[in-house]
Amino acid sequence: MAVWIQAQQLQGDALHQMQSLYGQHFPIEVRHYLSQWIEGQLWDVIDLENPQEEFKAKRLLDSLIQELQNKAEHQVGEDGFLLKIKLGHYASQLKSTYDRCPLELVRCIKHILYTEQRLVREATNSSSPAFEELRLMTQDTENELRKLQHNQEYFIIQYQESLRIQAQLTSLSTLPPADRQLREPALLSKRATVEAWLTREANTLQKYRLDLAEKHQKTLQLLRKQQTIILDDELIQWKRRQQLAGNGGPPEGGLDILQSWCEKLAETIWQNRQQIRRAEHLRQQLPIPGPIEELLNELNSTITDIISALVTSTFIIEKQPPQVLKTQTKFAATVRLLVGGKLNVHMNPPQVKATIISEQQAKALLKNENTRNDSSGEILNNNCVMEYHQTTGTLTFPHCYNMSSSLVGGNELVFQVKTLSLPVVVIVHGSQDNNATATVLWDNAFAEPGRVPFLVPDKVLWPQLCDAINMKYKAEVQSNRGLSEENLVFLAQKAFSISSNNPDDYRNMTMTWSQFNRVKLARRNFTFWQWFDGVMELTKKHLKPHWNDGAILGFVNKQQAQDMLMSKPNGTFLLRFSDSEIGGITIAWVAENPNKAGERMVWNLMPYTTKDFSIRSLADRISDLNHLLFLYPDRPKDEVFSKYYTPPLSKAVDGYVKPQIKQVVPEFATANPDPASGNQTYMDHGASQHLSDSMLDTDGDFDLDDTMDVARHVEELLRRPVESQWGGPQS
After folding, report:
1. For 578-583, which contacts have Cβ atoms below 8 Å and span 24 or more sequence positions?
2. Per-residue pLDDT tens over the stretch 519-564
3. pLDDT band at 304, cuts 50/70/90?
4. How far apart (Å, rounded) are the C-alpha atoms in residues 38 and 31?
5. Beta strands 334-337; 315-319: pairing state
6. Which pTM does this prediction carry?
7. 485 and which of 49, 74, 148, 289 could share a cystine (Cβ 3.0–4.6 Å)?
C-alpha cells in the first residue's frame, strides 16, 4: 500500500507529527496530488553531500514542477478552477525556492518520506500479531480458569456429599443391628462410588491446574518477548533519537504510540497476574498434593518481575533538562509514566523527587547500590506529586530535575522507580559554555545505548564526527543547508593539519576527544571545537540568511580563496571564515595592485566579528565597499545582498542629520552617490598612493580596526549640527 494512503490514516500525535512536516517549503497539497509520482522517484540514490549530484536534483525539480503544471491543466469545473490556480502557484513557489539549491528539495522530500514511513510503521506495529496472539492466549486461559473453577466447585460439592455419607455411616452405630445391616450396604456403595469419582476428579483437577500453568508459562514467555521489543528496541530507539535531538537531530517524536503499546502490555500483564492469583486462590481452597504449588509460585514471581520491569522502564524523561546548566538559573523538565493510567497509579498519586547526582552516584544507582540519598547540588522546588491528565491518560511530573525517583504502585504492589536524565554539565560562568557544549555534543553523539553512565569512546572515526557536527551546525544555524563534502574536507585539513583534498583520505582516520577540544590547533591558540563553535555562533547570530542563500562559502582557506579569485574579473569577492580568529569572517577580493601597474592580487579584509556586526550588518558593509562588484563566481552583489540593505536615512530634522556609520577601506574608497541628496559624499580619508603599513596585518590584510577609525571619524562629524547646510537654528 502506498505510504501516503497509510499516512492519511494516522491519528492523534502521529497525525500531528505528519502534518508538521509540511509548510511553505513543501505544501501538503503537493504531496497529496503528486503522491504516486513522488513515491516513484529514486530520491535515495542522490548523494546530498556531493555537489556534482546537483544536476540530478535539478532534473527532479523540473519534473516535479512539470507534473504540478500538468495536474493543474487537467482541473475542470468550479472547484477545479480554484485548484488549478493553487497548484500553479505552488509550481512557481517551488521553482523560486529550490531553483538555485535543488539538492535542498531532495533533502526535504527524503526527510518527509522517511518520517512518514516511520510513523506508519510505528502505528502498524501497535496492532501487531503479537498483541492479538496475547489477547487470544489470555482469553483462552481465562476460559480455562473458569472451567477449572466450575469443576472445582462441583468437586467440593461432591466432597461435601462424601462427608455427609460418612456422617451417616458413623451414625449407624447408634441404630439397632437390624436397621444398621439394612442401611449400611447402600451407604457403603454410595461412598465408594463418590470416593472413586473424587479420586478421578482430583487427578482431573490437578491436570487442569498443570495445563493452565503451562499455558500461563507460554503467555508469559510471549509477554517477555513483546516487552523486550518495546522496551529494549522501540523505547531505546526513542531515547536515542531524544539524545541526538540534543545535538540538533530530528525531533524524537511523540510518546503516544509507545504509551499505547505499553498500556496494552500493562493491561495484558495485569490480566494474567490476576488469573495466576485466582489459580493460587483455588489451590489454597482445595489443596491437592503435587507440583502445582511450586509452579504457581514461579509464575507469580515471573509475572511480578515482568510488571516491575515494565513500570520501572516506562518511567521516562519526556522533556530533558538543559544539558548545559548554569547555576542560579531556572529550568524545567518533564517525566512521564507510560503505564500510569492502566495501573490506576493516579488513584494514589506518587511523589517525585529530583536531585543532581555525580558520576559515581549514577553508577551506584544503576547497580542498585545505596547512594545514601546524597546530592551533588541543590535544586529548589524539587518535590511534586505526579499529575494525571484524563484526556490523554498520561501521568506526568512537569518540574525541574536531573535524576527523578518516585514511588509507584497500587494497593498490591509498590515499586521504587528511578530514571536518569541525559548528562548535564553545570557551569558557573558563560565562559565555560564552549567546553560544556563540546562535552555534551560528544556524549550525545557517541554514547552507546545502555552504557555505564558517562562512559563514552575516547576516539571516533572522522565520518562519525562529521555527521555529529553537521547535525549540530544545521540545528544551531537553523538551516537546511548543511556542511558539504568540500566543507568537511576543509575541516579535516584543519583538524589533522593535512593538505589533501581527497575526502577518501580521511574516511578511516580517527579523532580523539583531546584533538577535538583539548589540544590546540597547529600555530593557533584555540582548539578545533572552539574555532568551529565560533563559526556557528557568528553564523547563527548575524549570517544566517546569507548562509541559507549560499552567499557564504565560509570553509575556504586563504590560498584556496586566492586560487579561486585570480581567474575572475576585478571586483569579484567571496566570504570565508577566518582561519586565525575565533568567530570571524573575512572578505577576499581580486583587484589591481596599486604598487605595480598591470599586476592583479587578492586582498583580504581583517575579519569581522560579532562586535562588528552589532555596529553594522554584513550586507550594509558589502554595500559600502564600492570596489566589491561580483559575489563569486559571477553574481552581481546587489542581486544577492540588496534585500538585506538598511533603507536610506530620512532628511534632517530640526537642523540635525542622523549619523550613520559606513565601512570604508581608504585605498579602495571611491565616490559613493548619496541617493537622499543627489550629491556625492566621499568616504575616503586621505587616500594615498601606497598602502600604509598600519593598515595591514602581518599577512598583508587590511586591519579592520584602522578602517573603522575612518568610519568613527565620519560619524563624529555627522553628529555635529549642520548650520551652514541646513540654515536652521542650533539648539
Report:
1. 578/607, 579/494, 580/524, 580/607, 581/534, 581/607, 581/609, 582/526, 582/530, 582/531, 582/534, 583/534, 583/535, 583/537, 583/538, 583/609, 583/610
2. 999 889 999 999 999 999 999 999 999 998 889 999 999 999 999 9
3. very high
4. 7
5. antiparallel
6. 0.69
7. 49
